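Q: What does the assembled structure look like for these inputs?
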Amino acid sequence: MTSEHTADNLARILVIDDELAIRRFLHTVLSNEEFVLHEAEGGHAGLAAAAAFRPDVILLDLGLPDLDGVEVIRRIREWSQVPIIVLSVREREDDKIAALDAGADDYLTKPFGVGELLARMRAALRRSLRQSPEPVFTSGDLVMDLTLRRVTVKGEDIQLTPTEYDLLRLFVNHAGKVLTHSQILKQIWGVAYQEQPHVLRVNISNLRRKIEANPSRPRHIITEPGVGYRLSPER
Amino acid sequence: MTDNNDKRPSPEALLKLAQAEGEQAGQGKLKMFLGYAAGVGKTYAMLESAHLRRREGRDIVAGYVESHGRSETDALLEGLEVVPRQEISYQGVLLTEMHLDGILARKPQIVLVDELAHSNAPGVRHEKRWQDVEELLAAGIDVYTTVNIQHFESLNDVVTQITGVVVRETVPDRLLDIAFEIVLVDIPPEDLLQRLSEGKVYIPSQAARAIEKFFRPGNLMALRELSLRRTAARVDDQMRAYMETQSIAGPWPTMERLLVCVSGSPYSEKLIRATCRLAEELKAQWYTVYVETPGSSSHVRENREHVWRDLRLAESLGSQAATVTATSVTDGTLAYAVRHNVTKIVMGKPNKPRWRELLHPPVVDQIIRRSGPIDVVVVSFEPDGTSAAGAKRKQRLPFEFRGYAASVLLVVVATLTCQLLQPFLDPINMVMVYLLAVILGSVKLGLKPAILTAFLGTLAFDFFFVPPHFTFAVANPQYLITFAALFSVGVVISTLVSQARERAEVIRARELQTASLYYLSRALAAAADIGAVLKAVIKHVGEALNARLVLFLPEGERLDIMAASKGMSVDLKEQAVADWAFRNRHPAGRGTDTLVSASLIHLPLQTASNVLGVMGVSLESDSDYRSTESRRLLDAFATQAAMAMERVQFSRQAEQAQILQARENLERALLNSISHDLRSPLASVTGVLSSLRDEGAHLSEPARRELLDTACGEADRLNRFVGNLLDMTRIEAGALRLRREACDVQDLVGCALAVLEARLGDREVSFRMPPIMPLVPMDMVLMTQVLVNILENSIKYSPPGSPLEIVAVADKGWLELRLSDHGRGVPEQDLKRVFDKFYRIPVPEGAGGTGLGLSICKGLVEAHGGRIKAGNRTDGGLTIVIRLPLDVEEEKKI
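A:
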C-alpha cells in the first residue's frame, strides 16, 4: 500500500516485512502527522523500494523468505547510510550481531511495544539528521561536554582515564544506538583487540562505577546481553 | 532315546518331516536323471523332459548341456535357451565351464545342469559342480541334472571293486537324499554295448583303455543292479517316511547305533564307506570317532590331514563325527561307545604281521575283549594298490645326534666308576651302577638313546666286568638274565617317560585353547559396544592362534572392513570371498571347499537367527587351515564373537527403546502443560479484545485502561511461557550451544534486574559483591535467563514488597551466587524436587506458572559445568545457590 500524500516535513519510513499482520499494525500506528509509510513484502521488493522511495529510516525484518536480512543491509549500505532498524526474535543473538556489524543501526526484539519502537525510530532519525555531533550531551544527571572534555554527574566532576573517556565519548556519539562488542573494541582499541571482550568488560565495569548511581542497576550504559552495549539517549 | 513301539508317529519323525518341508520351502527342487553307465541316455531323457516343461510354459534354460557331438542330443538342444558358458584359461588351454553367476542373474524357473559329478576348472567359485547346483537350489532355482551311480560317495569303492576302475569324481550321498525326483534311465546292457559299437557313446580319448575294461557285460550288469537297488532303497525310504507320518504300523527301524573308529590309515576311508552302507541297511545312526592318544601327537602333520579328511567324509555321508582324547585307542573308543549307547562297533580286520601282534595286541582284539554287551563287526578289505590315500606315512624322527652321544657318555662314565670301585664292589652291585646310568638315560634322553644306553651298558658290563674279562663271552648264563633285565628297564622307563611327557603336552595344548576361549568370552562379556567386541576378538584370536584377522561387518548392502590386525589389508578378491561367505552363511576360502584360491579363510559370524559379519583369518602355516583343532577353535571363536555382537546390538536396541519411551513420556507431560498454560493467557487476551470490540462503546475510560493492562500483562506472560518452552526443548534436545565469554557478575545481575523491572515494583533488591571480583566465563544470555527465572520465582512466592538479596563471592575457583527471598520457602522433603520438570510448589492460591522455570535453570547451569542447589533460610524464605567454575579452557557445546 503506498502512502496517500508526501510532504517535506514528514519522515519517510520503509517497512520490509513479509507478515501482513505486522505491516497492518505498523501502518495503523505510524500513519499520522509524523510519518509517511511505505511497505515491501520481501527482500528484493524492499531493495527496489529503498531505491525508489528514498526513506529516512528502514524497518527491516530479519526473517525474510526470499533474501537474507543481512544481505539486504549490506546491499543498501553499498549506496546509502539510511538508518536501518532490524526486527528479530529472541535468542538469535548471532543474527543481531551480524546485522549490526553489516551496518544496521539498532534492533528490536519481537514482540515489542509501540513505545519502544517509536523511541528507537525517533532516535535514529535524530541521529541521521544531525550534521555534526552536539558538543554537550545531557542524560539524567550525566553531562558530558565534548569541547571542554568534562564529565559531571549531579554536577560533580568525574575523573576518567583516557580510555574510559574515549569509551564514553563513543557512546555519546552513538547515543540511543546499540554498539556491538567488536565494534567498540575495534574503535577504541583497534582491530587486534576485536576478540578480547574482557578488556571491554573491565572498562565498562569501571565506568559504571563512576557514573551510575547504582552500578548494579545501570541507567545510562545498558547491557544488551550477548550483543553489546547502548547508552540511553538524551533526556 | 526311547524305544517306540506304539502307533503314534514319534516326535522325531514329525520334526524331521517338518524340517524337511521347511527346507523345501524357498529351495529349488532337484530332479536327478540317474544312470548306471555313460551312454544310457540320461542327457537325452533330461532334454526330452525339458521340452515337455517348456511346452507347459515353464521358464527353462540350459546351464550346461554336453552333447559330446551326438547329433540326436544336439537336435534336442534346439529351441532351448542356453546360458553362455564362462571361459577360463588354465595352463595355456582355454576351458569352458558353467557360468554360475550368469544363471543366478538370469533366475530361470528350471536350469539344466549336465554331469553333476564334474570337477570345475581352477579359478571357478566352487571346486565341484554339485556345489554349484546346491547354490542354485538355495537361490530357489529348480535343477535338472544327470549323474551316474558310480559317482556317489558311499558306492564309490563298491564300484571300484566291481569294475576295477577307480572313479575319482564323487558326489555326496545327501544330494540323492534331497532330490525331489529321481528318474532312473535304464537300458539293458546288451543294448548299451550295441550303442557303444555303433559309436554312439562318448569316450574321452585318454580313457579308451579304461573304458574298455569298464564296458564288460558282467560289469554293466552289476552296475545296473546297483543302481536299481539304490533307487529301490530310496523308494523304500520314502515309503517308510510316509508310513511314519501316517503312523502306519510297519517294520520299524531297529534303533541300532554304529560306531567306527578312524586312525588316518588308508583303510579308514573304506571302513567309513562300509559302515555307511551297513548303517543304511540297518537303518541305524552311526558315529565316527578319531581317538587322539599321547602317542599320536608325534605323528607328522600329514596324518592330521588324512584324519580330517576322513572325518569330513564321514560327516558328508551322514555320520556324526567327533575327536576325543584318551590314553589309548581302545579306552577312547569304548568310552565314546558307552556314552552314546552304541550297539555295534565296526572295525577293520588287522593286517599287521603276526609277530607284531604279539608285542602290541591289535586294537580289534582289545575292543572285542572289553566291549561287553556291544557287538563288534569286523570288516575285511582287499589290499588295494590304487588306493587314493596310499601314500605311506613315514615317521621321520629327526636324527638326534646329541642324544646318542650323551648315552655313550653315560656308559663311559658308568664304566669308569665301576672301574674305580672294582676293588670294593661285587659284580652284582656294579650292575646297579649301570642300572642307574640306564635310568638316567631313559628319563632324560628319550626312547632310542635310552635303548642305546641299555645296549651299550650291557655290552660294557659284559666286556669289562663279567668273567671272562675283556671278552663278550659269558661264563655264567645267569648274567643273561641281568642283561635282559637291564635292557627292559631301560625301555620301559623311557617309554613311560616319553608317554607322560606327551600326555602333558597334549593337556597343555588343550588347556591353552580352553584358556584362550575363556579369556575371549570374558573380554566379550565386558565389551560395551561393537568396537570393543571387535578389538577383543582381534586380540584374543590373534594370540591364541598366532593369526591375523580382518573383521567385516555389513554396512547397508555391502560388507565393509570394520577392524583388522595391524598391517592386515585385503584386496577386492578377498572381499568377494567374504561376501560369498556372508550371503551363503558358509565358510569359504583357504582350507574349505569353496573359493579355495583365497589367501584367508573366511568364517561367517552367525547365531541361530542372524548373520552378523565375516571373520577373515590368516594363519601361520598352510596346514593349519585344514587342521581339525584350528578349525574347531576358529568356529568356537566365531560363535562367541557373533553372540557378543548380537548381545551388543540387542542392548543398544533396548536402550533406544527406553530413551524413546522416556521422550514420549516427557512429550505427553509437555503437551498437557502446554495445552493449559498456553490457552489461559490467550483466553484472557481474547476476552479483553472481544470486550473492547463488542462492548467498547459502553465502557468507561478507567475500565478500558484496566482491561488493556490485563491484556498486556497476559500477553507478556504468554511470551515468557513460550520462551520457557523453547529453552526446555532446546536443553532436552541437546541443542544447547554455549557462547562463553568472560562476564562481569554485576553486569549479569543488572541485566536480570532490567528484565524484571516492571514486576519488581518497589521491592528492595540488594546486591553484594567483593570489590575485586574476577570475570566469570559464561554465556551471558543464558545466565541472565537463569537469574530471571529464579527471581521471578521469588517474586511469585514471596509477599509483595518483601526484599530480595543477591550475594556473589569467589570461592576456590568457583563463583557462588546466592539468591534469597523472604517468602514461605519449600518443605524440606521437596527441596530436591524443586528442580524437576513440571514441579510446582504446592500452594493453595495456585500462583500459576509452568513449573519449568527452575528445571531450566538447572539445565543451563549444569551446561556450564556448574551446580545449583536450593535450601531454606533459617528465618524463612528460599535460597538458591549457583556455583559456576571460574576456570574453563574452551567453549563447550552440549
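Residues 1-7 of chain A have pLDDT under 50 and may be disordered.
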